[in-house]
Amino acid sequence: MYEILENQILHLLQKDGTPRKRAHLEEELGVRGDHRAAFQEALDALCASGRVIVDSRTWVKLPSPTGEVTGIFRANPRGYGFVTPEQITTDDEVFISAKSTGSAMTGDRVVARVLPKRSRRDQDRISGEIVRVLDRAHTLVVGTLRQDRDGWRLRPDGGDFARPVELEGVDARAVRHGDKVAARILSYPSRSAPARGVVAEVLGRPGRFDAETAAVLKRYHLSDTFKPSAMVEAVNAKTDFDPRRAHDREDVTDALIVTIDPPDAQDFDDAISLTRDEQGGWALGVHIADVSHFVPADSALDRSARQRGNSVYLPGRTLPMLPEILSNGICSLQPDQLRYAKSVYLTYDKDGQVQSTRFANTLIKSRARFAYQEVDAALRGSAGGIPEDVMALLRDMDDLARRIEERRRRAGMLQLKMPTTELVRNESGQVIGVEPEDTSYPHTIIEMFMVEANVAVASLLDRYCIPFMRRIHPEPDAKALRRLSQTLRLLGVTLSRQPQRSDLRALLEKVRDARTGLPVNLLVLRSLEKAVYSPASVGHYALAASKYCHFTSPIRRYADLMVHRALEAYLSGQLEQARRQHTFPELAAIGEHISATEQEAEEAEQELKRILVLHLLRKRVGDELNGVVVTLTAHGAAVHLPDYGIEGLISREALGPDRWQFDEQSQCLVGRHTKAVLRLAQLLRVRIVAVHPAGGQLDLAPAKGLAAQASGKTEKQKARGGRPRSRRGRKKRRPAS
Predict the structure, then answer these.
(1) Angle at Cα 692 formed by Cα 690 and Cα 694, nearest 5°?
(2) How many CB atoms sit inside 10 A of residue 503's CB?
(3) Which of 217, 362, 227 is nearest to 306 (CA)?
């Protein structure tokens, strides 16, 4: 248990590399009362193992990485990779070059030897070489089958292996060259010999929706089935459900309540009611499916939900956290059906300021189910037969949400504007196109109401000292913000070298509709920490919330289900029992697990989406598309293609016949002879050169010579031949205010 608390301490120290006082660490982690003894024991263990240093003045700091590092290896399709250390140091990751990866695969637990820094370019990066593989993450590998003259080989998907796997005992009657298959590994690769394996399952032909989906399920170990014990409990829950016996619940079935969700949704977690008073204020009701009533703690259903962590939403396929008899059935807040809910009531004044909160177990009946697009059309004047009282409700929801949004903006809430797309499929399920995802304002209406409910529940549980699963978003790393400021200056965008959240909010507002909007939003996103689940009282930086949790989606997120149980303890007057229900280390362990399952679900969704789009683009090799440069390195440029929602790579060799040099300080690639320049945020017409769906790679090249496309040059840069001046000898500029 103390191991989890140790990781929380290490994460906080590693966030910005800054030493902290012992008391400050306790405060940031929300350590109180009985937890102080566990905190001290965890800190003592870290000191004894050399993972932290505590000086005579009780300052706690991390050691610098030296010698060997143990961690998890993550491969890149181009051969190189990174090791994320278990023993957290002042650096996030260790870079492993392609020739130094040994036999490691993505996910393997490895030992890497840290290499000495040989050049100035290495000063900001720790490099190493893998010397041992301790634990293998995969016994199964997914890829494309190839038949050569000397046998069958598997070309792995996703860059888990840099080299093909040699296959034994292949039945040529059961497979074809080019099939997508899963193979069981018999022996792992060495420096002199490839991996060997046998075909375990034939998944289908590459590019087919079913085959690519099955491949992603195998790669990420995702399951679409439930154990019999969990299914029996789900059936029993449905059989026992009789809303007429809900005498201990507040009956609000006469209230006007609606749900607003994506058009293809089946699991309706949340519903909304809203009334106004004579003084112009509002009474908002956020009604959330009471999943905890049907899923008792430590039941087979609960253990299954905890293991899954969350539902997984793949293109055209949902893997629910709970059996569909619950998720799409008695838990789902379907229209005209009596349903159990946990309701949060918030009252607001006419300016959208919260005046009071109240919580209750309720019995509700949704009047109508809307898709976001329907509500958007109705608010724009196309009501389409919607009753007037429902239209009045939708207009009031729009009005209140805008006031809440404005209040949260003033408080510092960050709103990133990232382009999103969705796949278009035909009747047979094959992907035939890509279109922009709907981002109409009704999405923001629901988002604002959910945030308000989440904050209200987190504030309540914190006030009563009930340990609970928080959704935390730590403050960004100070070094990352300095790098962000330096890079933005190269785009002509001013940001303080030590920006506050209000500075970032103003920046995002400024570039919202500008040409530089996409790269700026990407740069800001990469500078922020990732939100995770943890019992630590850290707050949510992007939402400008000192206390936050996820409460509003218990059908699809285990964290929300845990919060519902904590709220139930308050509603039933069992506060002392709730305070003893979970220790800090227990919550921390669950938080780490469900944060990992959330990350895996996101990666699986994005990988499948990218593979399907790449198969679509195979028919367009040679075509030209519009793009924007979003990343530059010494190896080339990453270009975002807005029409397809993915990035492709222009290698340095594909830029044209010149000697291209990367100017890291000015973030541009410069042709030594032509003086052509490729800059961050530059609009670029590109040509599709090659598409490799299995590896997730899209190779691009400039459609025309870069000298003709370098529209980003200033007149001064053109006059001096296009190459940015070195910073040496340049007058120092004052930091922006």
Answers:
(1) 175
(2) 18
(3) 227
